[in-house]
């Protein structure tokens, strides 16, 4: 996912975020700072990580004041170290102060996601597997968070419920009570969507995974299986479908999971539990 892909959604999010932070202006800055003061502020990395969100930070400042000059020194996706100057903004000080927190909120949060993703990608380096995100995102921020995942070297799973069929445990529980087998469920799903829509199904043991692949599932998810079961499932499927591992994935387990031969590993933690990257805005007047 590139930044150009999400510009319309980003502009709307930026406007809403600024309205949230300044419903009637910044009464502190407006009452204390001379309106024609000028200065320059620099974004400084305080921790090691992977960058995401500088273009969004630029949008925030320019929405507040289109006459500000915003200079970017590191591209999104870059690895940064403590002390690196990432970008600078120059112009009216009151405008800089009004945009500061909203810009930093986006930049720190998205860089945290990119950093977490890059750690997982690094952990499986050399193995033929992709690290994917999930839909475990902050409501309203999904396109930004998935963009950050891509900046960290990860891949995006479905963006929303309309993208693809993903038959989960609750779907299976309901339909199995009606007497439907895995094959029946997949056939029913296939009949209900267009031919270009991919179908994925959760399975909890190698035998169900094989049945799903034989029934024509495009992607078979191995949900919370142990390492030996995943390895057996991969062997049984023998490239009949894309194999995705999910559940119980962390930095301590991800390489062993990758070693089973799965094609994808989905990691909810890269979005729902990522720690914000420490970045500050330091002002010179």
Structure described in brief:
The chain is of the alpha/beta class and about 280 residues long. Helix content is about 45%, strand content about 20%.
What characteristics describe this protein?
285 residues, alpha/beta, 6-stranded parallel beta sheet, 2 domains, TIM Barrel, 44% helix, single chain, 19% strand, 11 helices, Aldehyde Oxidoreductase, domain 3
Outline the low-pLDDT stretches: none
Give the CATH level 1 class of the largest domain.
Answer: Alpha Beta
Question: Considering the protein shown, what is the CATH homologous superfamily of the largest domain?
Answer: Aldolase class I
Backbone CA Rg: 23 Å
Spatial order of the strands forming the largest sheet: 6-11-10-9-8-7
Strand content: 15-25%
**Which class do the helix and strand fractions yield?**
alpha/beta
CATH architecture of the largest domain: Alpha-Beta Barrel
DSSP helical segment count: 11
